[in-house]
Amino acid sequence: MSIKRFFSLLGMSYKMAVKSLGSRKLRSILTILGIIIGPAVIVMMGAVVGGYSQYILNQVTSLGQNNIMITPSSDYTLTSSDLSYFKSFSYVVNAVPYYLTQATVTVGNSQEQIYIYCTDVNFVLHAIGGLEIEEGSAPSQGDVLDALIGHKVAYDQNGNLEYGVGDVVPLKVFTKITNGIPQYKTVNVIVSGVLKEYGGALIFSPDQTIFLDTDAGQKLLGLNSWSGILVQVSDPIYVKDFVSTVESTYGNKVSVISFSAIADIVSSITGAVNYINYVASLSAFAVAIAGTTATMVTSVIERTKEIGVMKSIGYTNREIIIMILSESTLMSFIAAVAGSLLGVAGSFVLGGSGMTIRAGTNTVVINSHPLFSAHLFITSIGLTILVGVVGGILPAYMASRIPPAVALRYE
């Protein structure tokens, strides 16, 4: 068959397919609805999972892929000797200790739970991308009362400024648990600077944080031991070497968290979820193949005489197969487009409510837009058209094997 003849036959086959589907509207619509489920699920779940995954990756990488957090176990205390050891690595740019605790502050008419980090604030500003001061400056080194406050500490829910530069912020600070009862102390800090709004955060929330100088941890808050040490290496390629060396040296005495490793884990989880999504979608495609086959078998039976006439005037078995497959793939293509559009709409509905993560008493709500890609749509449409091909093969073969004489006598 020449190329010209092939495309001419293909064009005529699709014209006949349109006419055939139009003559059996209800059956065709029901078959298309059965096929739609597959592409709709793939696009909807793929876009939602991709959106949340990208959000988390952006949050993690914004903390700096060359930053590492080291926290001690409950029976180990980090000291200046440990700090000196971490700084001894040739590729370590800097390492600073930090104290971390929680507090309650009154912002407008509400009580807000916030975090307090006592550390080298200039290190934090340099290490975390996107963290900028809106007004004022970072606390002076050695000044235990100066505080750099997050946007949601400075402003209430209506956007009104509650604490500006020079204002005093009263804090109810958690110190320890005695006999199962949390102990608090009240301290006052003076605002030296206000951070720009950082936005949603998963691991670290600057908007709900107050930063103090390292000395404030012991002198102002009465904390006796470091909560951890922040380490910055010169390049992310050194992270794995540093992490493995520290883990082998300290064993279970410390936990080492690298943000680049978290990003790798998130990517792996996303890949696994997408794989599960595709596997789950296959069941919908399997049902669609069965429905397409049933529809096309019925169509072939109804068109037996028509097929006999075509074969008697010279149509070959191959051309009959192309004609039947044109009809099944046309239904699949319509379902692929409609299903993809339905998946787009569904992804906005599904992702619009946000994802809530609870850790103890803390709750984080992630709001992310669905992430669409060409690969997602190509996969969706490709698999759906494959349904039409697979579902139409048996009926097409049946049609091609009908003897012309028998077909012409069929009523």
From TrEMBL:
Family: Belongs to the ABC-4 integral membrane protein family.
Compartment(s): Cell membrane
Domain of life: Archaea
Protein's UniProt keywords contain Cell membrane: yes
Residue intervals of the ABC3 transporter permease C-terminal domain: 279-404
Topological category with respect to the lipid bilayer: Multi-pass membrane protein
Keywords: Cell membrane, Membrane, Transmembrane, Transmembrane helix
Ranges where the MacB-like periplasmic core domain occurs: 28-243
MF terms in GO: transmembrane transporter activity
Transmembrane segments: 29-52, 275-301, 322-351, 371-394
Name used for this protein in its record: Putative ABC transporter
Alphabetical list of InterPro entries matching this protein: ABC3_permease_C, MacB_PCD, Macrolide_Exporter_MacB
Assigned GO CC terms: plasma membrane
Chief location of this protein within or outside the cell: membrane
